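Table S2 (text version). Query chain:
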Amino acid sequence: MNFKAIAMAAILGLSAPAIMDVATNSQAVAATRFNYPSGVFKNENQGWQVQLYFRNNAYHYQGKNLKTGSNISLIGATTSGTQQRQIYTWRNSQYRYQIAWRPSDPGVVRLQVFSRSGKVVLNCLLYEEYGD
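Corresponding C-alpha cell output:
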C-alpha cells in the first residue's frame, strides 16, 4: 500500500472545500461595484468641506478646512469595503484620508484622517451640499 498517495489524497480531499471558499470569496470581492460618490460634502460646525469627483480615470479628493482656509488635493483613491459600505482611501506622505459612503444614504459621507502611525486625527460626518 502506498501511504504517501493515500495521505496526499486525504489532504487534497480535506483542503478542496477551503480552496473553493477562498476562490469564491475572491470573485465576490472582485465583482463588487463601486459607485464613486461625487459632489461637495461639508460640515460647517466642524469646519470641513470635501469635493469628490471622478475624472480622467482617477478619483479626486479636494479637502478644505473652512476655519483656516487650508486645503489639500489628492488623486487616485484605492477602494475597499463592501457594496453596502464603500471606502475610498487616498494617501500622502503624512496622512491617510478615507471617505466611507453608503449608497443607501447617498447624501452623507464619513471623513476620517489617520496619521502615519494610524492614530485617528479627524472623524466626522459630512453632508452633501445642494445647489440653490
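Notes on Table S2: The first helix runs from residue 3 to 30. The beta strands are 39-43, 48-55, 58-65, 71-75, 78-81, 86-91, 95-101, 108-115, 120-128.
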